[in-house]
Amino acid sequence: MLSPSDEEYEYDVANKNRPNIIPLAALSKSHWTCSIEAGLEFCRIIYDIFGRKKLISFLASDTIAQQLTGWADDHQDLEYIQRVFGSLGLPRKAGRFDDVSILHGLYAATAQLLTPSQCQVNARLTLLDNADSFQNNGRIICVTVARSENQVSDIIDKFVNDFEMKNREALCSDECIPITNCELVLVLIHPVGSTPKVLPKDSWMATSNLTVTVIVTESGRNLANRMVALAVDYFNLVITSVTGIPMKEEQNANSSASYDVELLHSDEAHSEMSVELADGCRAPSQEISGVESVTLKWCTPKSSSNTDIQLCVGAYPISPVDANSRPSLCLTNFLLSGRSVMLEQPRRSGVKVLSHMLTSHGGQIYIHQLSTSRSILDDPPSISEGVGGRVTDYRIQNFGELIKKHALKPSTQTSADRAPIEGAESSLERHTRHWPLTISDTMIYNLQSHIDPLPELLLKDNLTAEDVEHCRSAIFRLITLESQNLLVLTLTYYNFDLDREEHSRMMWSELELLVRAHSSTSPHHALILEILLNCRPAGLEDSAANMKKRRGTSDSRTDHSQPSTPSSELLSETGRAKSLPRSDSPLPKKSKYAGITLDFKGNKSVLSLWTERMNHVNNNRHAEFSGRAHSTSNKVKLYQKLEEGIHYMDDVDETTPGVKNCPDH
Question: Where is the composition biased (Polar residues) (predicted)?
């Protein structure tokens, strides 16, 4: 451990750039010094975030194991640990016959984990009746130098044997607590720039309650960063990078620049952030390699802002990744002076979202997680609001009527056939077999005034012959209105990219879907479906299947048994529907513009549609000039016969109107 780390540090900075002065040579710390600094950095982060809730004990191994700190509360302090290491001094060079081994320290570490702390003793007393539920978990982090793979394997094998033996002995002891789960982490260091002699190994289970991991890293600054990465992994921490901090330059007080400071804290501080936003804010850490950081943007604090009324979800202590850097010191002093800073999530567009706040309480800096969702103190959202606050076209009025019809109340009537709750469930099932959520998802409910009372009658349990006749009349009325082009679609549904035939197909498809969804309720419902199939326009045989595939609005709960009563008996029962279509049914009148076909495809204005219609009507009022009728692009070549050497007047076609009496042509 006394060998140098080969990482040079310039300490004679004052004379480095002076002329005619040779600065002192750079220094290189030993592995021992780098290990102590890495251990202190590990403790600093844990104590800043968790205080004394996480206990750490230090041991040193030479010819014997030396316990430096224990589980006492006064030992969990950085100043105390520094004094202990200062009194320990440098490790001495081992002689040829000295029994110097890291195993002495590993054996003592196992015994230290078996020794209960004061908080464990108190917790064990409270669980005296249920002592089996008490768990003693720990982790041993060993920083050492290894020369070969065989040496590492020998250390692990001997440690596993000693661990199992001491754990069995602890089962019969009242002064020790058996270890439930333990993890041995061997951190093998080597000089900077050299080739390691041992390869790293992933975690593996040495025993049922012991996990072993081998980590190989360079000494110096890399070792400290590796210890910070272990703390992030072991204690569920996360790094937040505060970007855009305005700070005056040290050389020029009149100029300022933006700096970034990375803070460590519990990962629960980002629990309110959605997965999409958290992934968009993640970036590799600038200080710790192999660790990601969440980027939050500095929001300049306002003097009028009151931080005490912010809606906070939680507060978590923080610890700077690099506590000695100038940006970290300036930010720490700024927050400890009583100021607060709001942090916002970086977004490319849209309104900024203030998600976190930095402030201090009692000399400790905390990151507060602010609620970015709707507060319980705010008014409830409108029923017309969809996902993200977008206004939708929900059928709010129809939904209110559906709720009123199916409001539960105490029943005073008893039936031997079924319970009242079963009747309520059956009614709700019938009403929701085909119930579009939005206005833009339906056509027939936008034309309900033309098809009433068909939708209401289909919801009944049983239909009479009179109800069937009413449904039949509604279907024929719809056919008549469509033939006369009197069906007006609302602008919320009308799609200008589709022509009239496609709109008609979609309307009849949805109507068939509605009737087919209720056709299994009773035989009379099946009769209405048969009437619709016989009366619908030709070419729509596959309309219901296409409608179901395209929009998926039908319900699959129409798989009840089909009615056993044949439809011919029902036709005779009604007395009118036997001879469909009836002779006294309203015949479609010939429209004034029956021959007009308008193309609604494309984005055309109302003016262009009206102009095309008027041009078509005007063109039908007179006979078209034969020359223009047989022309190409409204251009006709005059005196075609003269080019062939034949006199024009002798060869003019007497039957051609407009040419014989017009010599100029």
Answer: 561-571
Please return the burial class of 114, using the count of CB atoms within 10 Å of its CB with bins 0-12, 13-18 and 19+.
Answer: buried
Rounded to whole angstroms, the Cα distance separating 17 from 11 reads 13
- The neighbour count for residue 528, using CB atoms within 10 Å, is 27
Token pair recorded at residue 43: 């403790």
Residues 318 and 402 in one domain: no
210 and 290 fall within a common domain: no
Query: Rounded to the nearest 5 degrees, what angle is found at the Cα of 14, between the Cα atoms of 8 and 16?
Result: 60
Provide the residue range defining the domain that includes 103.
28-91+98-121+135-232
Angle at alpha carbon of residue 186, lines to 193 and 190, rounded to 5°: 15
Alpha-helix runs per DSSP H in 253-368: 275-281, 326-336
DSSP conformational letter for 343: E
- Of the CA atoms within 13 Å of residue 70, those in its CB half-sphere come to 9
Question: Based on the number of CB atoms within 10 Å of its own CB, is 91 exposed (0-12), middle (13-18) or buried (19 or more)?
Answer: middle
**pLDDT tens digit sequence for 476-527:** 888 888 777 776 554 445 555 566 777 778 888 888 888 888 888 888 888 8
* Rounded distance between C-alpha atoms, residue 136 and residue 179, angstroms: 5
The residues with which 286 forms a beta bridge, in sequence order, are: none
Q: Which amino acid is at 634?
A: N
**Euclidean distance between CA atoms 470 and 577, whole angstroms:** 12
Characterize the bridge pairing of strands 237-248 and 256-266: antiparallel
The overall pTM is greater than 0.70: no
Q: Which residue has the tokens 């710790």?
A: 288
Torsion on CA atoms 77, 81, 82, 87, rounded to nearest 10: 140
Output the pLDDT for position 210. 92
Q: In sequence order, what are the residues at sequence separation of 6 or more whose Cβ sits closer than 8 angstroms to the Cβ of residue 542?
A: none
How many whole angstroms separate alpha carbon 567 and alpha carbon 524?
8
Domain boundary residue among 207, 232, 257? 232
Do 63 and 201 share a structural domain?
Answer: yes
CATH number, domain containing residue 254: 2.40.290
In this structure, are strands 27-30 and 4-9 parallel, antiparallel, or unpaired? Answer: antiparallel
* Rounded Cα–Cα distance for residues 199 and 150 (Å): 11
Q: How far apart are CA 119 and CA 22, in angstroms?
A: 57
| Distance in angstroms (rounded) separating the CA atoms of residues 143 and 214 | 10
Intervals of the chain under pLDDT 50: 97, 490-492, 543-545, 547-601, 648-665
Residue at token pair 């102009």: 611
Contact 102, 155 (CB under 8 A): yes
Contacts of 608 by beta carbon, 8 Å cutoff, 6+ apart: none
Total number of domains in the chain:
3
Q: Cα(567)–Cα(523) distance, rounded to whole angstroms?
A: 8
User: What per-residue confidence (pLDDT) applies to 601?
Assistant: 47
Q: What are phi and psi of 462, to 5 degrees?
A: -130, 145
Looking at the fold, whether 37 and 152 belong to one and the same domain comes out as: yes
Do 20 and 28 contact (CB within 8 A), yes or no? no
Whether the CB-CB separation of 560 and 584 falls below 8 Å is answered with: no
CA distance 460 to 241: 64
Whether 222 and 36 have beta carbons less than 8 Å apart is answered as no
Domain boundary residue, one of 546, 579, 612: 579
Nearest to 540 by CA among 582, 579, 562, 511: 511
227 inside domain: yes
> What whole-number distance in Å separates Cα of residue 423 and Cα of residue 412?
14
Q: Smallest Cα–Cα separation from 508: which of 545, 531, 530, 537?
A: 537
Read off the DSSP letter of residue 578. G
pLDDT for 128: 63
Amino acid at 50: F
